[in-house]
Every structure is written in C-alpha cells, then in structure tokens.
Design goal:
The complex is a heterotrimer of chains A (247), B (221) and C (193).
Chain A: H1 12-56, E1 62-69, E2 72-75, E3 93-99, E4 105-115, E5 120-128, E6 133-141, H2 156-159, E7 165-166, E8 181-183, E9 193-195, H3 201-222, H4 226-229
Chain B: H1 11-15, H2 31-36, H3 41-64, H4 74-96, H5 98-104, H6 115-125, H7 130-160, E1 162-163, E2 166-167, H8 182-207
Antiparallel strand pairs in B: 1-2
Helix pairs in contact in B: 3-4, 3-6, 3-7, 4-5, 4-6, 7-8
Chain C: H1 6-16, H2 27-32, H3 37-68, H4 74-96, H5 98-104, H6 115-126, H7 131-159, H8 171-185
Helix pairs in contact in C: 1-7, 3-4, 3-6, 3-7, 4-5, 4-6, 7-8
Classes of the chains: A alpha+beta (247), B mainly alpha (221), C mainly alpha (193).
C-alpha cells in the first residue's frame, strides 16, 4: 500500500500541474522525434516518387517538379510545402518533368486517381509530348482484390495498352481529342481505348477513369509550356506569356 | 489473511501475457489491428512489434510516474502518454520504411486506442514497480504478436500461397483469396478462438472426471 | 456518382466500405454490446453522436494545426477531443436519459477507445475532406456502424435459442457470423462507381 493513502481529492492545482507537465514532456518528445525523422522521411518520399517517375518514363535520369497555378508555371519546392501529404490546392496542377543526362525532356509524369473496386486507385502516368501519347503508368497506392485487381500490375496484355495510348489534344488544344476509355476485354479498336482485363473490369475501368481525368485536367493546360520545358536549363521559373489564356 | 501485494517477479509475470491472459485470444482486446493488418506475415510482425514498443514505453513511463499522477486525471494522462509514443512510432516507421508504412496505413496511429495498452496501464502499470511492469508488458506484447502471427500466417498461406513473401506452394496453387479480405479475417480469428476454446475445454474435462460442468464463455470485452 | 460528391461519400462509409465489416473499426463494442437489440441500438446511437461531434471538432482542429504547421500534434489533439466528446455525451445522457445511461453502463466511456471514432477522424484528414464532405462521411460511418451492430444483435438474439456446441459459444460464433456479414457486404463493392 502507498504510504500516503489519503482519501482526500487531489487539489485542482496538482491536477493542472500534472497535466501540464505531462503535456510538455509529450510535446518535447514528439517535436524531437519529428525533427530527427524529417530528413529521412523526405528522402524516402523522394526515392519513392522518383522510382515511380523513372518507371513510367524510361531513359530519364533527372526530374523537376512544377506546378501550374493561375496561368503560370513555377518550379515546385516540396521542402517549402508545409504538409507532406497532398494539400488540396485550389487550381494548382502538379506534374513532374523528366530529363535525360543531356537535359532533354523525355516525358511528363503526373498523378491521377479514381475509385476502384474497394477504394481509390492512385497512380502516376507518363506522357510523351513527342507522340502526344501516354506511355505507361505506375500504381502509387491501391487496395484492390489481390489476384484479380492487382493483375493491372502484371498482365502483359493490359500493360501493352499503354505502349502508346493516344492522348492527343483537339485542334483548339482545349481538351482531349478523344476520351480515354476502358472497353470490354477484346473489343479495343482505337488507340485511345484500353482493353480491360477480363474478370477485373472495375479495376481496369478505374485505371482508365483516372488517366482520362488526369489527362483532361493537365494536358490542355500543360500545352503552352511544352516548348519551355524541352531543355532543363531553360529558365522555367518565370511566368510565361501564353496567349491561350484558358483558365 | 490479507492479500499482500506481490512485488516479486516470477516466470508467470512474463508468461501470463503469452498464454493465460493472451490479450487477443483470452481477453479479446485490441481486435481492430488484429484483423486489419494480418493479411500478411510481415505486416502482422511489424504491427506486433510496434504495439509491443508502445506498450513497453508507455507502461514503463506510467509505472515510473505512478505515485505522482493524481487519481482524477490518470486516464487523461495515460492517454496523452500513449498517444505520444504512438506518434513517435509513427514517424520512426515512416523514416525506416515508407512501403511498410503504406501497407499498415492508419492502423499505426490506431494503436493509441488499442484497449490492451490503456487497460494494462490502468490495471497493472499504475500498481506495480518498473521492472515488474516491463516484464509483464513484454509478455503481453509478445502474446499479442504471437496472436497476430497466428492469424497472419494462416491468412497469407491460404490467401496468397506464401509466407513472408516466399511462395510456399507451387504455381498451380489457387489462392483462397477471401482469406486476405475482410471476411477471411473474421473467419480465421473465429476458427482460432474455436481451437483455443476446444483445447481449454479438453484440459478442463481431463482434470475434472465428473462431467456436466461446461464452461459457458460469453466473450464479454 | 462522382467520387467527391456528398452522396457517394455517405454511401461509401455506409455500405461499400462499412466501418465495421470492411474496415475493421469499432470491433470491441460490435462484439461486446451486440447481445440485445435494445442495447445495440443505444450503443450505436451514442457512438454515432460521438462520431459526428468528433468529426466536426477534428476538422476544425486540423485547420488550426495546419495553419500553425504543427501537424505532428495531430494524434494527441484528436484523442483529447474524442475523450472530451465522450465525456460530453456521457454527461448529457445522464441528465436527459438516465435509463439509457444505466443500460449502457461501462460501455459509454469505452467509446473513447473505439477505433472507429479515431479512425474516422484520421481517414477524413487523410482524404482532405472539406466540412460538408466530413459531415457526410461521419454520418455515413455512424449509420453503417448502427446497421452492422443491429444486424449482429438481431442474429445473436436468434442464436440464443439455437443449439450450438459449447466451444463455439461467445466470441467464436460471433466472429464467424461477422465473417458472413462481411462477405455479404462485399456485394456492395462497385456501387455507385
């Protein structure tokens, strides 16, 4: 038994002091941990994102992150952003430009997401401005049915859809010339269609939806800046004078 | 004769948590992570170790401070302490392996509401000295990890044909996919509980030759 | 249905990704309180109320944390808010419906450690929902929880009259039932998509 087993209530002061001390101690420990782990965490995130980018844009060795906001293209510094997770920016469009050793643009990568069978499917798709087509995708996060939905990662026939998925813009460069759409297994006829995996239609459709939505949103607004982005050392941080002016 | 508080550390202090008072199979605590992250052995192991770490640190600290915390604010204090260590674990896992972190999802942060940890703090750490608390928490944590591994191995083996990522069965194995999905989690846990209940019943029937005494286990949390 | 819409978010939390049967949250009360339909209903209602309050508070607290760039305190703040919300509901229940308060007994303060409440706050933060979406999400989650616990309670009440082996009584059979329920709810996948 405790020596001071007094039945009286603890004073409000002692309660406040205890809570205060514990709160301060906790805060100290948490802040310390956060400081110590900040650098490794950012490094891990950088590695993960670059792995995905270089997977969808082969032959690229370096990348830069840009955002299009309010009709201007600016370099995006993730260290300056206050949260590690995606903060919902009103109209800022984030994308990655991938270059080879000589500083030539090899492709553009951007994130896209759509609802799959169980939850959202988040992926990164690679866009080749030369052919105006989508050349591949890499799944960032998904919780689809193992053995069925996750076939989108391994099924060769499905992946071959993305050797040159048509993502041309129409004449006015305002929207995609043809909607990217997932069609029933075996009925693909056009270059902008994706042949679904039989038995995993919903997940296949999610990939199609995600890429279509992402491309619809990004490519028209990206078009004015493509010439700027061609080489790495061009000053891409200044706002460009673009005549398009669409949104 | 009055019951004296036992300050000694026995083998039972450690072993209780693993078998007799196993947090999952006997006390039915901490159910949520048990079902959610046991779709593979590596996830189960990581979750078990993370929970054990939080349990050890928080019950250790609480045991150290047990005479200083006024009774009225003890739950609030315990919760803040537990939440602190969970936050620390969360960041450490992110720094060590982002893949593991993404696989475990939000369930790392949900360790803070694992009834086992708060329950231990309230029932044990606040009443026993540091060394005894640590030994007991270690036992509890390992018992929890053991339970997670029981589930994880069955679910991964049947649902994926592998253990720790290494394929056990050949290519012709048709995975029983539902095992790695939510329903499988419920069913496998139910099956394990059935097994343990049966073992317990057999033990009781063997030591009591006169039958007609059946244990009605209501499973109240 | 657009993924961002209120109706889809509600449907998602209610049926497609039911908090109990698909996301494994809120299992302790689900297994512990679902013996009788009445207690199940009261527990479900109390939990949903706490969910709503916590979701709202979590949203505003998160805005504050982000503003001051101290997101690492998120977990501690959320759990503190949830504990307070539970305390609030407990006190108001004691005043306005003492019968209910007695019926729920120890399970009311246990709502604090209900993973569903904290899980709700964390998920809505991760998905960056705005205020309206958060409300839809928490309402859906609460409704889904009530649905799951009522279904289970109904089944278990019937089970009392059934002849099942001793070894499977209690938690074992409840879990098997939950597994079957979860299997049924898998049928909702792809709804509205």
């Amino acid at each position: 038994m405790n020596q001071h087993h007094s039945p009286q209530r603890a004073s409000s002061l002692s309660m406040i002091i205890t809570l205060g001390v514990v709160a301060m101690l906790s805060g100290l420990l948490v802040v310390l941990t956060w400081q110590l782990t900040l650098a490794p965490i950012q490094e891990n995130q950088r590695i993960m994102i670059e792995k995905a980018i270089f997977q969808v844009i082969p032959k690229a060795t370096q990348r830069r992150t840009y955002q299009i906001k309010n009709n201007s293209l600016t370099a995006y510094d993730s260290h300056k952003s206050n949260t590690g997770k995606n903060k919902k920016n009103n109209s800022a469009l984030l994308f990655y430009a991938a270059y080879d050793d000589q500083g030539q643009l090899k492709g553009i990568a951007a994130e896209a997401a759509a609802q799959g069978y169980a939850d959202m499917v988040r992926l990164l798709y690679g866009y080749d401005p030369q052919c105006q087509c989508i050349r591949g995708f890499s799944v960032i996060k998904m919780t689809e049915t193992p053995g069925l939905g996750d076939k989108i990662l391994t099924d060769q026939a499905f992946l071959s859809n993305f050797s040159a998925l048509d993502a041309r813009l129409d004449k006015a460069h305002n929207t995609l010339a043809h909607r990217i759409v997932t069609v029933k297994h075996g009925s693909k006829k056009q270059a902008w269609e994706i042949d679904a995996i039989s038995g995993a239609t919903i997940t296949s459709k999610a990939v199609g939806k995600a890429i279509n939505q992402g491309a619809e949103q990004l490519l028209p607004r990206l078009y004015p800046y493509l010439s700027q982005l061609q080489t790495l050392n061009a000053s891409t941080t200044k706002p460009s004078h673009n005549k398009k002016g669409k949104q | 004769m009055p019951i004296k508080k036992d300050n000694s550390i026995t083998a039972d202090t450690f072993l209780d948590g693993i078998w007799k008072e196993n947090p999952v199979f006997v006390m039915l605590l901490g159910m949520c992570p048990v079902l959610a992250v046991t779709n593979s052995v590596s996830n189960a192991l990581a979750m078990g170790l993370a929970t054990t770490f939080v349990l050890l640190c928080s019950s250790g600290l609480i045991s150290l401070l047990r005479h200083l915390i006024p009774k009225e604010v003890r739950i609030a204090t315990y919760i803040v302490i537990i939440a602190t260590f969970v936050t620390i674990t969360d960041y450490v896992i992110q720094a060590v392996s982002l893949e593991l972190y993404n696989a475990l999802g939000a369930f790392i942060q949900l360790i803070v509401v694992n009834c086992m940890i708060l329950g231990r703090a309230e029932a044990y750490a606040s009443k026993h000295h540091l060394l005894k608390t640590i030994v007991n928490s270690l036992g509890m944590g390992l018992g929890f990890t053991f339970a997670l591994l029981c589930l994880g191995s069955v679910r991964e083996l049947l649902g994926n044909g592998s253990l720790l990522g290494y394929a056990i069965f050949g290519d012709s194995f048709q995975p029983w996919v539902v095992m790695v999905l939510p329903p499988g989690g419920f069913i496998v846990l139910g099956a394990w509980l059935l097994l343990f209940n049966w073992l317990k019943e057999r033990k009781i029937n063997n030591t009591q030759h006169s039958s007609n005494t059946f244990v009605k286990n209501k499973g109240v949390v | 249905m657009p993924v961002d819409s209120i109706s889809f978010i509600f449907l998602n939390a209610f049926l497609i990704n039911n908090f109990v049967l698909a996301m494994f949250l809120g299992l302790c009360p689900f297994l512990g309180v679902s013996g009788k339909l009445n207690t199940a209903w009261s527990m479900g209602l109390a939990t949903s109320l706490v969910m709503l309050i916590s979701s709202l508070s979590a949203y505003f607290i998160n805005e504050l944390l982000v503003y001051f760039q101290i997101e690492f305190l998120r977990l501690i703040c959320y759990i503190a808010v949830i504990a307070s919300a539970v305390q609030l509901v407990e006190m108001s229940m004691k005043k306005f419906s003492p019968l209910l308060f007695k019926a729920l007994g120890i399970f009311l303060p246990l709502i604090t450690t209900n993973c569903a409440i904290l899980g709700l706050a964390l998920f809505q933060t991760n998905k960056n929902y705005d205020l309206a979406q958060s409300l839809a999400y928490s309402t859906g989650a609460g409704a889904g929880f009530i649905l799951a616990i009522m279904l289970m309670a109904g089944l278990r009440e019937k089970l009392e009259l059934a002849n099942i082996p001793n070894t499977s009584q209690g938690a074992a059979i409840s879990l098997m039932l939950a597994g079957i329920l979860s299997l049924i709810f898998m049928g909702f996948a792809g709804l509205g998509g």
